[in-house]
Predict the 3D structure of the following.
Amino acid sequence: MSKILLVEDETILRETLAEILELNDFEVITASSGLEALEILKDTVPDLILSDVLMPGMTGFEMMEQVKIQAQFKDVPFIFLSALTSHDDKQKGLDLGCRHFITKPFKSFEVVKLITATLAKD
């Protein structure tokens, strides 16, 4: 069972998406901020990180930069979920090394499909 770290500050979205992922046979660990995610990552190495970009305290971009400098997380794929829609924002995520940049609102089956495809490639 693949382990996903889901980082999302919107409670309802985080809980709903976690439930959908669990129903699709993923183990899900949740964090409500980038700072909380960094604390979780001290004790676990997920197979994939699914993160919002705009969060209080630390953006998803900043979190990804801090995660990716640590050797044990170098190959952990990131997928961003965001209300940001500009080409520049998407390009920034891709330049940082995220695998996919999903714009909110999204269809849950699309997220599951991208996660499954991303994990199958690794």
Observations:
- The mean pLDDT is 93.
- The first strand starts at residue 3 and ends at 7.
